[in-house]
Amino acid sequence: MPAPNFERRPQSFPGGVPSCIPAHQARAPTAHEKPVWILSRYNADWRWLQNRPTNPWYPTARIFGQPSMGDWDSVMAEVGRELAAEIAKQRG
Protein backbone atom coordinates (compact mmCIF):
# COMPACT_ATOMS: atom_id res chain seq x y z
CA MET A 1 0.00 0.00 0.00
CA PRO A 2 1.46 3.38 -0.96
CA ALA A 3 1.92 6.00 1.72
CA PRO A 4 -0.78 8.68 1.87
CA ASN A 5 0.01 11.98 0.18
CA PHE A 6 -0.32 14.74 2.76
CA GLU A 7 0.59 17.57 0.39
CA ARG A 8 -3.08 18.18 -0.40
CA ARG A 9 -5.00 18.47 2.84
CA PRO A 10 -8.49 16.98 2.89
CA GLN A 11 -11.29 19.43 3.63
CA SER A 12 -12.96 17.22 6.21
CA PHE A 13 -13.17 13.69 7.51
CA PRO A 14 -16.33 11.73 8.26
CA GLY A 15 -16.86 12.13 11.97
CA GLY A 16 -13.51 13.90 12.26
CA VAL A 17 -10.09 12.35 12.48
CA PRO A 18 -9.74 10.49 15.75
CA SER A 19 -7.14 11.77 18.16
CA CYS A 20 -4.31 9.47 19.18
CA ILE A 21 -3.73 9.88 22.87
CA PRO A 22 -2.31 8.03 25.86
CA ALA A 23 -4.90 5.90 27.62
CA HIS A 24 -5.07 8.07 30.75
CA GLN A 25 -6.41 11.00 28.68
CA ALA A 26 -9.21 9.10 26.93
CA ARG A 27 -12.11 9.71 29.29
CA ALA A 28 -12.96 13.27 28.20
CA PRO A 29 -13.32 12.70 24.43
CA THR A 30 -15.17 9.43 24.88
CA ALA A 31 -17.53 11.04 27.39
CA HIS A 32 -18.46 13.50 24.64
CA GLU A 33 -18.84 10.65 22.14
CA LYS A 34 -15.87 11.82 20.07
CA PRO A 35 -13.84 9.22 18.22
CA VAL A 36 -10.50 8.64 19.87
CA TRP A 37 -7.63 6.29 19.21
CA ILE A 38 -5.89 5.13 22.36
CA LEU A 39 -2.25 4.08 22.41
CA SER A 40 -2.03 1.49 25.15
CA ARG A 41 1.02 -0.16 26.66
CA TYR A 42 1.46 -3.92 26.88
CA ASN A 43 0.58 -4.21 30.56
CA ALA A 44 -2.26 -1.69 30.43
CA ASP A 45 -4.70 -0.89 33.19
CA TRP A 46 -7.51 -3.46 33.51
CA ARG A 47 -10.18 -1.11 32.13
CA TRP A 48 -8.62 -1.18 28.64
CA LEU A 49 -8.99 -4.96 28.53
CA GLN A 50 -6.45 -7.06 26.70
CA ASN A 51 -5.99 -8.13 23.09
CA ARG A 52 -8.98 -6.30 21.64
CA PRO A 53 -9.44 -2.98 19.81
CA THR A 54 -12.74 -2.05 21.45
CA ASN A 55 -14.05 -1.52 24.95
CA PRO A 56 -17.66 -1.65 26.16
CA TRP A 57 -17.15 1.30 28.54
CA TYR A 58 -15.65 3.54 25.85
CA PRO A 59 -17.67 2.82 22.69
CA THR A 60 -16.08 5.56 20.56
CA ALA A 61 -12.55 4.43 21.37
CA ARG A 62 -10.27 2.32 19.18
CA ILE A 63 -7.48 0.79 21.25
CA PHE A 64 -4.06 0.19 19.73
CA GLY A 65 -2.20 -2.00 22.20
CA GLN A 66 1.39 -3.14 22.23
CA PRO A 67 1.69 -6.81 21.25
CA SER A 68 4.79 -7.06 23.46
CA MET A 69 6.53 -4.91 26.05
CA GLY A 70 8.14 -1.84 24.48
CA ASP A 71 6.92 -2.53 20.93
CA TRP A 72 5.65 0.90 19.90
CA ASP A 73 6.84 0.41 16.30
CA SER A 74 4.09 -2.08 15.48
CA VAL A 75 1.51 0.08 17.29
CA MET A 76 2.45 3.13 15.20
CA ALA A 77 2.48 1.04 12.01
CA GLU A 78 -1.07 -0.09 12.76
CA VAL A 79 -2.13 3.51 13.51
CA GLY A 80 -0.61 4.54 10.17
CA ARG A 81 -2.58 1.88 8.29
CA GLU A 82 -5.83 2.88 10.00
CA LEU A 83 -5.20 6.57 9.31
CA ALA A 84 -4.52 5.83 5.64
CA ALA A 85 -7.82 3.90 5.51
CA GLU A 86 -9.68 6.86 7.08
CA ILE A 87 -8.15 9.20 4.49
CA ALA A 88 -9.06 6.84 1.65
CA LYS A 89 -12.66 6.66 2.90
CA GLN A 90 -12.87 10.45 2.98
CA ARG A 91 -11.52 10.80 -0.52
CA GLY A 92 -14.06 8.27 -1.74
What does this protein structure show overall?
The chain contains 2 helices and 3 strands, in the order E-H-E-E-H. The chain has one domain. Helix content is 27%, strand content 15%.
Q: Give the strand line-up of the largest sheet.
A: 1-2-3
Count of all domains: 1
**Uncertain stretches of 5 or more adjacent residues:** 5-14
- Rounded to the nearest angstrom, the radius of gyration is 14 Å
The percent of residues in helical segments reads: 25-40%
N/C terminus separation? 16 Å
Number of helices: 2
Backbone structural class: alpha/beta
- The tally of strands reads 3
What summary fits the major beta sheet? 3 strands, parallel
Principal-axis shape equals globular
Q: H/E element string?
A: EHEEH
**Mean pLDDT figure:** 76
List its salient traits.
single chain, 92 residues, alpha/beta, 2 helices, 27% helix, 15% strand
Q: What is the structure about, briefly put?
A:
With 92 residues, the protein is of the alpha/beta class. It has helices at residues 27-31, 72-91, and strands at 19-22, 36-40, 61-65.
Write the layout of secondary structure elements.
Elements: E1 19-22, H1 27-31, E2 36-40, E3 61-65, H2 72-91
Parallel strand pairs: 1-2, 2-3
